[in-house]
Amino acid sequence: MINIIAFMGPSASGKSTLRDSMELDRIVTFTSRKAREGEKDGVDYHFISREIILELYDKGKLLEFTEYNGNIYATGIESLTEVMDSKGLATIIVDNNGAVKLKELLVERVLVIGVVAPFEECEERMMDRNESDVSRRLASYEREIEEIIKTSDLIINNSRANWNSAKDILGYLKKGLI
Questions:
Q1: Is 12 left (phi over 0), alpha (psi -120 to 50) or beta?
Q2: pTM of whole model > 0.85?
Q3: Which strands, in side-by-side order, build the sheet including 90-93?
């Protein structure tokens, strides 16, 4: 039985948009970066300092953490345990490191969905959102695509041309899992 659907993909590939379209509970992860405009603590991320994240990891309260663009992102064990104990279904956004750790820990109770979109569309989406560091955030695009191919159980092409199909696939998936 699948309890967690994990989304992974390059920056601006549409992971959050697709996850939100499923209208399922979300596992909120930790980050040391500052909140972007419109993001809320405890909803989008738990925004805490690097020091606190590292302290939580040392205390065994985090499954994993990754440094990306100078910020730390981490997955808490307690939130995963709550989902598993409730036998519910929830979503999470992770990088390759998080996806690999989830698969090691939860085996068949996690489904990893790789979200891809053309490089140019990812770049355009970031510029439309007035995001800074566009080139730095997309520098790892090719590597992330390779990781998606290697790690994901399902890959969704989230290009503009496929948006409705991508949403439909997730809708069918949700119906089959609930």
A1: left
A2: yes
A3: 25-26, 90-93, 4-8, 110-116, 154-157
137 CB-side CA count, 13 A: 17
Domain ranges for the chain, please list them.
4-177
Per-residue pLDDT reduced to its tens digit, 3-23: 999 999 999 999 999 999 999
Instruction: Considering only the C-alpha atoms of the chain, give the largest distance between any 2 of them, rounded to a whole number of Å.
Output: 46
The span from the CA of 101 to the CA of 151, in Å, is 11
Question: Which tens digit of pLDDT belongs to each residue from 122-172?
Answer: 999 988 877 777 887 788 899 999 999 999 999 999 999 998 999 999 999
CATH topology of domain 4-177: Rossmann fold (3.40.50)
Tokens of residue 27, six digits: 């596992």
